[in-house]
Amino acid sequence: MSKPVYVGLDIGSSRTKVAVVDSERRLLGHAVKKSGTDFSVTAGVCLDASLEMAGATRGEIVNAVSTGYGRSNVAFVTGQHKTEIGCLAKGCYNRFPEAITIIDIGGQDNKVIKLEPDGRRNSFKMNRKCAAGTGAFLEEMSFRLDIPLEEMNGLARQSREMVKLGSYCTVFSATEVLEHIRHGKKVADIVKGIFYSVIKRVLEMDSPTERVVMTGGVVAHNPYIVEMAEEMIGRSVLLPELPQLAGAIGAALYALEEKGEANG
Amino acid sequence: MAEEKLTMRKKIQAADRMNRIMADYFYGLDEAATTGKRKVAWCTSVGPAELLRALGYDVYFPENHAAMLGATRMSTDLIPAANAIGYSPDICSYLTADIGACLKGITPLSKAYKGIESVPKPDVLVFNTNQCRDVQDWFAWYSRRFGVPSIGVTSPKNVNDVTEAHVDDVSRQIQALVPTLEEIAGTKLDMDRLRETVSLSRECTELWKQVLETATAAPSPLTFFDGTIHMGPAVVLRGTRVAIDYYKELLAELTQRIRDGVGAVDDESSRLYWEGMPVWGRLRQHSELFSHLKASVLASTYCSSWIFPAFDAQDPFRSMAKAYLELFIVRADRYKETYLKGMLEKFRIDGIIYHDAKTCPYNSNSRYGLPQRVEAETGIPSLVLSGDLNDLRCVSDEQTKTNVEAFLEQIAEGR
Ligand code: SF4
To answer: At what angle are helices A84-95 and B397-413 packed, to 10 degrees?
Structure first.
C-alpha cells in the first residue's frame, strides 16, 4: 500500500538533515549526517535512512524541498528550494503557533528570526562573516582545550565559577583560553565561559520577544546552553523535540503545502 | 529540481554612446597630462568641479578610478599593498585600492583604453570633506607622491538643516581656493564661464534626476545596477554639454520603455531600494541574483547623490556651497530618515536593503538604529547586508544570497 510522503532536506555546511512527513504533517522519519564534501551523496544517504525509518520508499515521495547552504546541490529535489530562514520559521511555527523569536545556533552561522502571531516573518538576522557564537567556534575551542566536543556540555554543567571571555574573535578567544589555562583556571569554568560567549554573541544580534524558541545542532547537543540562555534571558525557552531538525521539518512542510494538501 | 526560467536584466542601448563618451573623456585627460596642453585637477566626487572646469582644468576623479578597480575586481589584490605601507584594511577601500594601484603601477584605464599608460598626472588635488575624511588623506598621499598641492574644503558634517551659516562657511572656503587654482592654471577666473558651468551642471543634474525618476513606473525601466553604470557622465562630466546630451538620449530610451510597458526586470514582482554603496566587484552577480528572483532594485541613495537642485548660475559660489552641503551623506539621521521615507513612497518600495560597507562608515547607514526607526514608521521591511564596496575579502556571497532570498520570501509571505 503506497503512502504519500513529503521530504525536507536541510543541507547545512556542516550537517545534512532530512525529515519525512505524511499528509497529516506527522513526522515519520528523520536522519542527520555530516555533510562532507559531496552534498549530493550525503543527502542521498540521509534520505534513504529517513525513508527507511518512515517505512516508505523513494517512489512514494510526492514532493521534496531543499534548504540550507547546499540547497541547490541536490538532484532529486522536486519542489522549489527555500532558504533555511524560511524553513526554520515554518518548522518552528508548526510546533509553536504563536508570536515567537527563533534563535538558531548552527554549525557555521546563527540566525534570529521573529514571527508574528499568524506565523508571518517580521524580521530575521544572520550573523556576519565570522565564526563568533557558532558551532565552528565551539569546535575550535574544543580543539584548543583538547577535549571532545561531546564532553563540553557535561563539563560546563560542573562549573562553579565561570571564566568570562572578553573577545568577539575566535582567534583572540583561543588566546584568552590559553591564558586562562596558564593561570590554572579549571577547564569546566572555561567551557562554561565559552558557552556564555556563544549565547552573548547571539543575543547581541537582536532583542528577543516574549516567547523564545531555540534550535540548531549546538542546542541539540548541548542542552546546558539552553538552561544558560534561559537564565540570561530571564524566562523559559521553548524547545522542539528535535532542535536540529527544525529546518528540515520546515522544508518538508513546504513540500507538503506546495503539492500535497490538495492530495492529502 | 523544478525548471526555473532565469529572469535577466535588459541592456540599455544608450550604453554604447556612454562608452564612447567615457573613452573620449579619458583620452582627453591623457592628452592633457602627457602633452601639458591643459592642466589636470583631481577632484573628489562632490568637490568644486564646476570651479575647476571654469578655470580650464581637465578634471579627473580618483573615486571613479577606484570604482573601476572594484568593478574589474582588481582592487582586492591591490588593497594589501596599501595596507602594507600603513593604510589600514579598515579604512576606505577606494583609497587603499587606488593607492595600491599606484604603488604597483597598474590601472584599468590601460586595459580599457589602448594607448593610455597611467592615470593622468595631476597639477593640483582638490578635495571636499563633505563625504568623509578619507578623501583628504587619500589626496595627501598623492600630494606627497607627485609633489603637487592638495587643497580643499573642510566641510561641516552631520547637518540636519543646511543653514546660511553653513553655506557662508563653505562658500568662503571655495572662494579662498581661487587664487591658488588661478596661479596653477595660469589664468584668471572668468565669472561668466563659472556661471555657465554651474548652469550646465544644473541642467545635467535635472536630467539625471528625470532618468532616475523613470523608475517610479511599474515595471521600472531601470535598475540601481544600471544606474551605477550610467551615472558615469553625471559624475565625471557634470558642467559639460556632453553629459547633458547623453542624458537626453538615455531619458528618451527609458521613456520609450515605459510607453512600451517594458521593465528592466521581467515580471517585476518586488520593488526594492538600495541604501549604501554598491559592491562594485559584484554588480553583475547582484543584478542577476535579484532579477532571477523577479525583484527590481530600482532606486538608491547612491545614484541619487548626483542630483543637486541648489545649483544656481546667478549665485555660483553660494549655490555650489549649498549643493555640496545638501548632499545626503553630509546630513544627520533626522534628515536622512525623512529623505528615505520620501523615496520609499515615491518609488512604491516593498523592501529596503542597507549595505553595511565594512570600510565606509559614511555610506553605511545601518549602524545607528536608522533601519529600525524607518521600518517602525513605514512598516516596510529592511535587510542589512554586510559587505564592502571594493574589498571582496569582506563579502560573503553565500550569506548575501541566503539573506536576499530569505528577504524576498519574507516580502512575498507578507502580502
Ligand atoms: S565616502 Fe566612503 S567610499 Fe567614499 S571616499 Fe569616503 S570612505 Fe571612501
So the answer is: 50
